[in-house]
Request: fold
Amino acid sequence: MATGAYMLPFGCASDAVLAALEPSYYPPALTGLRGSQPGSNTHAHSRAREKKSDWGPTTNLKEEYDLIVVGGGISGLSAAYFFQREHGKDTKVLILDNHDDFGGHARRNEHMINGDLRLTNGGSQTFVSPHARSELVLTLLKEIGIDLDQFKTAYDVNFYKRNKLGAITYFNKQMFGEDRVVKHPYGNYPWWVEGLPRPEISHEEAAQQAPVSEKGKEQLLRVLNGGLHVLDVPRKNLENYMYSNSYFDYLKTNLKVDDPGVLEMARTSCSDWAGGGADVLSIGEAVDCGALGFDPVSTWKDLIGERAFQKMAREHGNTFAEEDPYIHHFPDGNATIARMLVKKMIPNVGTGDNAKEIVTSKFNYAELDKSSNVVRIRLNSTVVNVTHGSDPDSSSDVFVKYMNDNTSCQVKAKGVVMACYNSMIPHIVSDLPKEQDAALRRSVKIPLQYTTVGLKNWRAIKEIEMGMAMSPGNMHQVMMMDFPVSMGGYEFTKKPTDPCAIQMIACPFGAIAGTPPVEQFREARHKMLSLQLEDYENEVRAHLSGMLPKGLFEFDRDVESITVNRWAHGYVYSGSRLFDSDLRGMARTGRQPFGRITIANIDSAPSSYAHAAIKQAWRAVNELG
Reply:
């Protein structure tokens, strides 16, 4: 009810309705089922699955724009910004998005706890290694008011050590026979969190403390002590071998692992880093994401040397580059980037001229779609058809039909940037070339879930010394204290008696390990969307109550709010040598311009990083001329 309480019948008279919106229209403060909120994909699914084409009478709004952008995520917002910057401040732009908030996966979650505002991200988390990015990306960040140097002091790198919070593992009773916390992560995934201390117990102690059989303990120790040295492969062939052979085959064949508990620990040891279970990773990919038994830093340094490793880290812009640590996290994640883009194009939406100043700014959503704006953002609007006015090679107009509150509306533009899920484009863009149509349909998204929980205090978390918890066997494979960032007027939680927001991350897999990734994503997506809010709340209740000390933590007493950010279509899947090796080529073919229509979004990279979304936006805008 909270999700839909403010959703008025917009119809097509957007100005009249938006001008009358109550101040309560403020999506970041909503809890419950969020992300792609219930109803946001209804029309898209009707078009793609049921081939619906009759949308009833269509009202021609007689609105004409220089550019219409389909999709209001970071890529779509960047495309609008670039286009206006290149064509002048009077350039008219309309951004259409099917969600009730802008930003796409860069979603802001607000938890109000006894009058204390706690911010966190509901999706796109951190700008990874920004200094390694192109001049285009760095210039954009600077232009919209983002100073990268501020994170050197905004991110409290000593927070975890000062509070004795480290990486632990929570084994649940349902899978492992008992609820047990071990102060060891059994993998290297957690070390991308800057400042998180390494465990003090040895591999031998960690294996003995794991609640698995004696045989399982022996196998777990073999995995923890394993590595590339157990492979009988000449060094010159090793890198190629790593990316051509399965990580689970390495576990089962080379290390003789068959204990179900150990295999589950391995499968969930990369969580959202890999965007899927480790059961479908190559050995090389398992190394890169720090899967159970592999330390990416020491492995690569041993393979190619210290200097070459640092060069590789800089060029790839990964989290292990020493000069670009994983600290570029706003209190609401990359939602700040989306908000700054909106603020640049619609100045009256809120206060503040830079990232520091808008952290606590409450945006006025009634400003987004005013007719007096040069750039307008129209939410709750699902595009169902995009077509040229005449032959695509010569047409000067593109017509866009969208659904708003079950009402069909049409607007016109000189050009369109499709910054939506690329797999939807063939269903809504008429007469695409067959090869391009087929390539776009190959685009695949990975389901992803960020559940954020508002806690009245974190005394129980302090007691078990948890900065991050790996949780094999749970829906949420990772639980963590949010990143310790204070910025502008916002202060990160200080004491265990203070309120805080925690992150619970789920990257759902299929039921059977080893099933091809695309099949697993489809199965997991269906299950994700079939669950109700009560199901998620029960899962969070069981997870926290099983992991945290009784007495110090009581769910009904200590949990203030839960926001379940479900992204059934989350990270873009780029394939590998083991599975779907054609996807990168398909993305290049699919993103080609089609008349006055060009294509952006991370799907066209394909890469799930924010900088990729920005670069694809720039390419799409330039292709329009």
User: Anything to note?
Assistant: The chain has 26 helices and 19 strands.
